[in-house]
Design goal:
Layout lengths: L1 H6 L7 H20 L7 H13 L7 H36 L11 H15 L10 H23 L5 H24 L5 H8 L8 H20 L1 H7 L3 H6 L4 H23 L5 H13 L3 H25 L7 H19 L6
Helix pairs in contact: 2-4, 2-14, 4-9, 4-12, 4-13, 4-14, 5-6, 5-7, 5-8, 6-7, 6-12, 9-12, 10-14, 13-14, 13-15, 14-15
């Protein structure tokens, strides 16, 4: 009896589990701010942080303090936001489609963002000198537009099921990718810039990007966590969900909208970063339980910690900076293969 109870998957998130996850995230974030490519001294940076919080005397010069507060801190916060958005969206997509390999970019978000970013780079070459750069806003609009087009196409095909949405997403992504390729050929000198953006990175970010992404990701996170119990009900099947008073179509629309909003906000400030939405939810599922009341909040926290670590590796492992998407691919691709093998025969 005790053994069966121990093997039963957790269906509620224990406060101590969430607290432990938050402490890990806090520790990772502090280390990423303290340590960097430029050695400022861990003790001196910690003293600087304490001085700012308590009104003490800073041991850093004005330039060194600017590195901490204007470069490292906003980058760490943005990495946490983007990681939380992608991991939370990945968990939500996996719950909606009942497929452990579902990805935040599944319904054309990546293709839409890539197309919009390419149009800006090719047709507005002087945009980088603008006070407010149009590329993040274009990527945000393109990601939402790609998902919206997939949804409209899926509905017009006469169905609201997951299979119809997936097929619509594939068609829309293929079309938008073709448009992007065509636009690239109009100015081949911009191909390197486009692909650098598509590989993902946070090397040109600051506080403006943090404030740009924060409200959308925060709103999406609240909605997804509020829908966690409904995702558990959807896992029983549409007929069973209907018998319990849950409208499966409405739940899918709300969850996919929130997940797509989070993905679009992440893409707008970081480019395309793969595998976060697959790796983190699976690790949470293995370690903490199969209920989305556990998976979603822990995926948000775990995704933030994962991407902070990945970004720290990207900016310190080499004299130059690796694209962040390359680092996540090194970690995620082998993990994806393992997941594919372990779920063989259980995919819908």
């Amino acid at each position: 009896m005790l053994k069966a109870r121990a093997l039963r998957p957790a269906t509620t998130l224990r406060p101590r589990t969430l607290l432990a996850a938050m402490l890990v995230l806090l520790g990772v974030g502090v280390l990423a701010v303290v340590l960097g490519a430029g050695d400022l001294g861990a003790g001196r940076v910690l003293t600087e942080i304490g001085a700012q919080l308590t009104g003490g005397v800073s041991p850093l010069s004005e330039r060194e303090a600017a590195i901490v507060w204007e470069l490292r801190l906003p980058r760490v916060l943005l990495a946490g936001l983007v990681g939380a958005a992608l991991a939370g969206a990945g968990a939500a997509f996996q719950g909606v489609f009942r497929n452990p390999l579902a990805d935040p970019y599944l319904l054309g978000a990546a293709a839409g963002a890539g197309m919009a970013a390419t149009i800006v780079v090719v047709l507005l070459p002087a945009a980088s000198s603008w006070v407010v750069g149009p590329l993040p806003l274009a990527a945000f609009a393109g990601a939402l537009g790609g998902v919206g087009l997939s949804w409209v196409l899926g509905r017009s095909a006469g169905g609201s099921g997951t299979a119809t949405l997936l097929l619509a997403g594939v068609a829309v992504a293929s079309f938008l990718t073709a448009v992007q390729t065509f636009v690239q050929q109009l100015d081949t000198d911009t191909i390197e810039q486009v692909y650098t953006w598509m590989l993902g990175g946070l090397n040109l970010t600051g506080w403006r990007e943090v404030w740009l992404a924060l409200p959308y990701i925060a709103l999406a996170a609240v909605v997804l966590c509020a829908c966690a119990r409904l995702l558990d009900v959807l896992g029983l099947g549409d007929a069973e969900a209907a018998s319990l008073g849950v409208h499966a179509g409405r739940v899918r629309l709300v969850v996919l909208s929130a997940a797509s909003l989070a993905t679009a906000a992440a893409v707008a400030v970081s480019g395309l970063i793969g595998f976060v939405g697959i790796v983190v939810p699976h690790l949470v599922r293995l370690l903490a339980g199969a209920s989305y009341r556990v998976i979603l909040p822990l995926s948000l926290v775990g995704g933030a910690a994962f991407l902070i670590v990945a970004d720290h590796i990207a900016r310190t492992i080499m004299p130059g900076e690796l694209p962040l998407g390359v680092v996540t691919a090194f970690a995620g691709a082998p993990f994806f293969v393992v997941v594919l093998r372990t779920t063989r025969g259980r995919l819908p």
